[in-house]
Amino acid sequence: MKKIVSAVLLLWGIGIHAVESTVPQEKMKMSRGDVKIIEATENIRYLSQKIAKEYLFFYTYPENRRIKEELYTTLKDLSSNLQTISAVTKDADTNNLLEFLAYSKEEILNILKKEPTNEQAILMLDYSETLLEGADSIGRTYAYSFSKEEEMLVASKNVSYLLERIMKYYMALYHGYNTQNNRLNLYRSVTKLRDYLVKLNDYVYPEKIEKTRQKINFVWQRDRRILDKLDQYFIPILLSDSVVFLEKKIDILARYHSQNL
């Protein structure tokens, strides 16, 4: 299915945008509706990785009902953001893309209704990339030149997105999906996350926020060492808990920049 959808996207002239957020471009004055679409696409990018990561955890620990409940919550959030775009956009290509993304969402729902299997896990990885490609494509349609605070907000959002993407591929490699592409995507995500952290570290924060940033740097350096040894040992629960902690701290930075817009 991923090959079919990717082929259609390619025919529309839409390239794959693997780990970087929409590149700002010059554009006419943005409407509130356009801003809502951009916010929704950022959310979909994050959720596309989160739902695949959660499914791989469910595949690993099928007796854990809480993980399955989280999967349905993530799918509900995904549906809500797709509906947000649908309610606002008047762009024909965007509406066409939404049809494909809605189909992917329904297929994910069908996967969740079944017992987790190797085949279903591979399909989930494919659908997560389809959702990501579609969100990136829609985002480019509505891109514009960001202000400094908007750039920092996007940087913080991308750190959370990349943390989910890293965990997705960490779990994929553990389950034997040790393809060159999966391993490369993990390392590229780690590198890109580092670049965004450099951007956040160059920003002058007030003292309270600065302490939060220092915690982020400390925890990430520890997690980075774990990822460097992913072929030696596997500690998904500990690493996942650490990612949850990091995302909570990153959200503090995101809220700070959002308030400064």
Would you mind describing this structure in some detail?
- The chain has helices spanning about 1-10, 30-60, 65-90, 90-110, 120-140, 150-175, 180-200, 205-230, 235-260.
- It is mainly alpha-helical and about 260 residues long.
- Helix 1 runs parallel beside helix 5, helix 2 (about 30-60) runs parallel beside helix 6 and helix 3 packs antiparallel against helix 4 (about 90-110).
- The radius of gyration is 18 Å and the shape is globular.
- The protein starts with a helix and ends with a helix.
- Residues about 1-20 have low confidence and may be disordered.
Set down the secondary structure blueprint.
Layout: H1 2-11, H2 32-60, H3 65-88, H4 92-112, H5 118-141, H6 148-174, H7 180-201, H8 207-228, H9 236-259
Helix pairs in contact: 1-5, 2-3, 2-5, 2-6, 3-4, 4-5, 6-7, 6-9, 8-9
Keywords:
Four Helix Bundle (Hemerythrin (Met), subunit A), 261 residues, 2 domains, mainly alpha, disordered N terminus
- Report the oligomer: single chain
User: How many individual helices?
Assistant: 9
Which band does the percent of strand residues land in?
under 5%
Determine Rg (CA atoms, Å): 18 Å
Shape: globular
What is the average of the pLDDT values?
A: 90
**Structure classification:** mainly alpha
N-to-C order of helices and strands: HHHHHHHHH
CATH homologous superfamily identity of the largest domain = Alpha-catenin/vinculin-like
Q: Count of DSSP E strands?
A: 0
Poorly predicted runs of 5 or more residues: 1-19
CATH-defined architecture of the largest domain: Up-down Bundle
What is the name of the CATH class of the largest domain? Mainly Alpha
Structural domains: how many: 2
Find the CATH topology of the largest domain. Four Helix Bundle (Hemerythrin (Met), subunit A)
Largest sheet: none
Provide the helix percentage.
Answer: over 70%
Distance between the termini: 40 Å
